[in-house]
Amino acid sequence: MLGLVLAVVPPAPATVDEYLSSALDSTGLPGVSVVVTHGDHVVRAAGAGHDSLGHPVTADTPMRVASVSKSFTAAAVMTLVEADRLSLDDEVSSWLPYPRGVTVRHLLNQTSGIRDSSVDIGRLTSARTLAEYVSLLSPIEPAAAPGTSFSYSNVNYDVAARIVELASGEPFDEYVGSAVFGPLGMRHSEVGGWAADGYNSLFGQWFSRPELADGPRVNGSGAVVTTAADMGRWLIAQTGNGVFPESMLAPMHEPSEVDDYGMGWAPDDNGLLVHSGNLWTYNAVEAIDPRTGYGYAVMTNGAGMLDDTGDILAGLVALTRGETPETPGGSRQLTEWLLAAVTLAAAVLGVLGVVRSKRWAGRRRSADQRVRWVSVAVRLVPPLLPVLLFGFYPQVVSFVSSGRTVLWAQLFYFALPLTVALAVAAVAGLAILCARVVRLCFPR
């Protein structure tokens, strides 16, 4: 019984503030804003830290929420479904040049069969409108039959956003503003809106950078700018306490026939429905607990090797369950310090390798001063390995990212410490390789 009571008694606002302050210190993030809701009211919306303009982060600070935007796109589609202006079972090809058999439902469930590998992601970064984006998609080669497998891709939600434009007769940002933000009273939210430059971290040090422009400013996959206060209104609506009817919410929250992912929401191991978002200088996560009626959102204006928003969210959930939250953070800092050590070691070894190349070449020569090239070729492989790894770096990261395409420009944002470490190792390896070959071919 005690556990049940703790589950429904909201924490005091001061408790949330105290946790937020400690989370900012332990993660080292430049700025964080959070909101906790319960039923039809906001428990606490607050911020800590600062933005790149030197202003304190508050509950009203504009924050980019990246892929959390997908749940807003799904809501926009559902408002059109509720108005009988669109059907989830409409084929996309009835609205756009697209492979047959893919429905609007497939787009939102991420079961269209379209993966990043199905299109030229690099080409799409040049688009500046959703119409131009869709025109650049062709040709599309689905990786699976529609409705048979799950594959997360921004393409699905950007195409859905274009369908919203065609079905509503309005630009996507304007329609979301009037049909979603407006009814909820989210007066400080906008698709493609303004936010201060976010931050990237390099070896534990944050520095501000403009957000990477890699596609349309207004899109359906990751362009929402909002505030913690406005996210409170959104979460209240998502827990069934707002203007959205159950007939609209249920399809968004329910899993598809082939995966747990719904429409901008997916269950986690704690019984929550969640969606995270990782942009190049901002991170975010939202969650609702259908059992207790709690809602949570965490937004940060810094993006690094590791995302701390999930850990901060877990702490907020613990507070609402009457538990003591664990201290979030630390992993990002440790990872970046280790990469800094690797970078320094690679630079030192590179210098030593070049300095010792003459001695190395001398040892590779036989008594008659002829080079045993087969043996030498084998021994030249180690310094070549970091060069090859860096050359295929985007492909390697894309492979380990579950098939999501990652481009060179993006690797100089969130993955900057790893990129620098690999670049220094590659330069060191190339320098050693060249020095050794020169010493072998032109002995003195």
Total DSSP helices: 18
| Total beta strand runs | 12
Strand content: 5-15%
> Helical amount among residues, as a percent range?
40-55%
Describe the main β-sheet briefly: 6 strands, antiparallel
Q: Could you tell me how far the N terminus lies from the C terminus, measured between alpha carbons in angstroms? A: 85 Å
Structural class: alpha+beta
Radius of gyration: 25 Å
CATH architecture of the largest domain: 3-Layer(aba) Sandwich
Q: Which regions are unreliable across 5 or more consecutive residues at pLDDT < 50? A: 1-7
Strand order of the largest sheet: 2-1-11-10-9-8
Q: How would you describe this protein?
A:
The chain has 444 residues and is an alpha+beta fold. The protein has helices at residues 2-8, 13-27, 69-82, 104-109, 121-124, 130-135, 154-168, 172-184, 228-241, 246-253, 309-320, 331-355, 357-363, 373-379, 381-391, 393-400, 408-411, 416-441; strands at 31-38, 41-49, 63-64, 190-191, 198-202, 205-209, 224-226, 266-267, 273-278, 283-289, 294-300, 302-303. The protein folds into 2 domains: 2-329, 3-Layer(aba) Sandwich (Beta-lactamase); 332-441, no CATH class. The chain is 45% helix and 13% strand. The chain has a 6-stranded antiparallel sheet with strand order 2-1-11-10-9-8, sandwiched between helices. A 3-stranded antiparallel sheet has the order 3-7-4. A 3-stranded mixed sheet has the order 6-5-12, with no helix packed on it. Helix 2 (13-27) runs antiparallel to helix 11, helix 3 packs across helix 10 and helix 13 (357-363) crosses helix 18 (416-441). The longest helix has 26 residues, at 416-441. InterPro entries: AmpC-like, Beta-lactam-related, Beta-lactam/transpept-like. It comes from Actinophytocola oryzae. Keywords: Membrane, Transmembrane, Transmembrane helix.
